[in-house]
């Protein structure tokens, strides 16, 4: 690269300018696809593949994953924005819109001859100022149901229709509150997501216990037990035909039989230990025993257990071992050598539900469950997938709020406030750098503008109203999507995650700057092509 | 209580899926839905499962998980067609169809706008269109599949369970260049949520349904990123289930270049992937039998293997994959027989061959098993000249002495064994005349043909079906409709070979030492540090050096001719 520019610096410049134009148009293209998604009034998209697979979504992240993005710049933006989603669970659409808008605004000054370096310097200053504003407007929250509902509902209403969003909000908040212990960070894996293809989406509910996607495998085994001890274990109850089973290595059929019998007895002894414990604890009482095993249970063992009225499930998920212990109490056992009552958990009821070829087992009425299940329902696969995506994001929004211990006023309020602050700030900065700050400020308005457009309001009008109102108020002012008028997000409980906003500011300014300094990007592109 | 000993099958990669598609097709074309027929000698429940869809229709589908890249399915919805959940597409725009209208209406009642974004309709192969038409008999038609198949879904007759298909979105399928390139990328892909959570959970769901799981058979593309993905999966299966695991690494006969790599570099990548995979397989597989119709696959792809009375286009994916599928269908009879003694199991099959750590075995195949149409087996074997079968393991010859092998023969009925006493004449003078079964006679033959060897023979009287969509155009004119040889008469062009007798073997012999040695030699010559893409995907140079050293130690298992 260096040698070429020595020969012909003009050509080099032209090439860079051309590349920049390409970058900007790629960013605009992506922005155009995504802009209609922003906010609760964004359009629902129904994607149909060439083979007829259906996906329904309003979520920018899902959309980006489904799109076939060829252009390297577009795919760089897409990657930044899916990275945003991976780390925070939200903010994908905003990221795409903001990067695109930063480039557009910068372009206005660049065509007037401003050097990209100056613009990016301005972006850098604007970004740190914006982060200061972010800290100034954040609203510390007490962790309680009402506050968490605000944040969860804002997020969920941008993913699914309002009636469903309200159901899911309740479900997600209750789930998190159930598994939260003191001030310890929550492990979202302790909320199991289980899907059942029947009924309707709004039948999705929270089960205060564990639902498993398998059931009993013996015709005589009880399908429902009450007052149940729960034994969770990771102990094989199946006769494993070992590798030395080869035809060459047994001299006689008897020798082989002997080996088989010894192995079988070994497994039987394990089964007998369970049966002995059940007799000791349950016989003559109302109590019952359920065995949930991560390993296999073969038909002979199932038969022996069934005869004792024990309900036994095999091949439970590894993660369910931990979940069951948290939901029912007890310990997951790796051997039955010293099995005793204290190792067992408890559930008020355990029952099986059959749906087509699928079986489900519900472990419910647990005392103080610290692991719970969200049971997702829907008439078809695409509805279920959409709900699952939404719930994941909802849970993360709540969890982010727990970590941040604060929220940010949404509905464009934060962006408008930063816009006003940056305009004041830029006058204190000397030189052309202030133009970069101005571009950054303008770009942020892409969020309230598109929120307005997607609800059918005029973008210019909205911005004028919001910026004026914001100047007059100490509290940030956002857009009421049902009236088109300014409102206080706090009154309407429209909140965004602090973490998400922070990450958007950081990643967008970095990516936009990289794309502006296209010369370097090209160079980076060249080296990454090799090898 | 059933006593089926189930197996879960895994297919990783496009060529593996080509082979798999043929294999399931072959199996299903021998299904009999007539309750009056004698029960099949093969227990299909070993590889298939019964289910019900939401319309309460009974389904019978392979207990299978497969992985392929985005863009490889063409018309096939990811969830398959048996359980609904996709829209039937035609040439017209989707917006106007009733299905879509209904979904749109439902959504519009609940919220505001719905925008339908549709990709162009993926056209269906004529064969697939005809399968949906109950009036058309596909056997009566000529589809020229060898010339117009684009991907394995074109000729897939079998129908898969919604669980089966797993599509990787991060890499795009292309017939021009391979994007999913290195072993290391495959290992990385295994560590993503799609595999660690979803895929593993699907395995668990299959396993949970099984009463007497025998183990797994893992069929995978060994030349690209799937080498890492499949072997990482096998390691997981061992940790989690500890059952027998039979691996079949396969090599496509078509040398598709890797992205951003010229031909020599593409060859190097294939060699490195192979070496890393073979090392991993020596640790994780119970037994592995590499398959290809090319005779060499390390640095350069070699010539096409010659099978008697069979011609195929050397780089035709549809045809070559059918040959390999026919091999698998035959050799796997060992663990798919109904009412078989317990040594006829996957563990028994692997255990016979893998003593002394010899987990690598070679494939040998006769398609068709060359027998004259009026000949008795005893005369056929007596008059046999030259090797009885062709090697299908690349860079490996057929073993002759000190061989341990498992053979499966299909399509030779008891009455073709020998003449009854009163007509026996010359046959009575042969030692083999005392043999009363097909397997016994093969045993005796092998005892004479291979010095100091040990063979296990299983036999099924039903021949292998070769009806459409199997490429029966590969069979020579001298073959009869039933797959036997008739050098004096020629089959008419409109008459198709509907079944063939086959003979397959898996062999452990010192030949495999050479296979490993040549691989090691090629792999050692590659400067791994210059292949940045390995390091970029997390493979350190030291790991590679270690793997090669281990590979050499593994080769030593084949060094000495052991005592039987
Ligand atoms: N009820 C509401 N009224 C106004 N604005 C809202 C409302 N709910 C969410 N928003 C705004 O919508 C934006 C988020 O939209 P969303 O579609 O989730 O995009 P992203 O993918 O960027 O998260 C945020 O700026 C948020 O403040
Ligand atoms: Mg959002």
TrEMBL record, chain A:
Where is it mostly found?
cytoplasm
Tell me where in or outside the cell this protein is found.
Answer: Cytoplasm
Any one cellular-component term (Gene Ontology):
cytoplasm
| Alphabetized UniProt keyword annotations | ATP-binding, Chaperone, Cytoplasm, Nucleotide-binding
Record carries keyword NAD: no
Instruction: Give the matching PROSITE patterns.
Output: TCP1_1, TCP1_2, TCP1_3
Coiled-coil annotated residue ranges, if any = none
Q: Which SUPFAM superfamilies match?
A: GroEL apical domain-like, GroEL equatorial domain-like, GroEL-intermediate domain like
Question: Tell me, what is one Gene Ontology molecular-function annotation carried by this entry?
Answer: ATP binding
Q: Which family does it belong to?
A: Belongs to the TCP-1 chaperonin family.
Protein name as catalogued: T-complex protein 1 subunit zeta
Q: Which gene encodes it?
A: TCPZ
UniProtKB/TrEMBL annotation, chain B:
Asked if Mitochondrion is a keyword of the record, the answer is yes
Q: Does the keyword Mitochondrion apply?
A: yes
Biological-process GO terms, alphabetical = mitochondrion organization
Task: Provide the Gene Ontology terms for cellular component.
Answer: mitochondrion
User: Where found, per UniProt?
Assistant: Mitochondrion
- Which keywords are on file for this protein? Mitochondrion
Q: Which InterPro entries match?
A: DML1/Misato (IPR049942), DML1/Misato_tubulin (IPR029209), Misato_II_tubulin-like (IPR019605), Tubulin/FtsZ_GTPase_sf (IPR036525)
Q: Which residues form the DML1/Misato tubulin domain?
A: 146-337
Which residue numbers delimit the Misato Segment II tubulin-like domain? Answer: 5-132
Question: Which top-level group of life is the source organism from?
Answer: Eukaryota
The record's family statement is:
Belongs to the misato family.
The protein, known as: Protein misato
Q: Which organism is it from?
A: Bactrocera dorsalis (Oriental fruit fly)
Q: Which gene encodes it?
A: LOC105222026
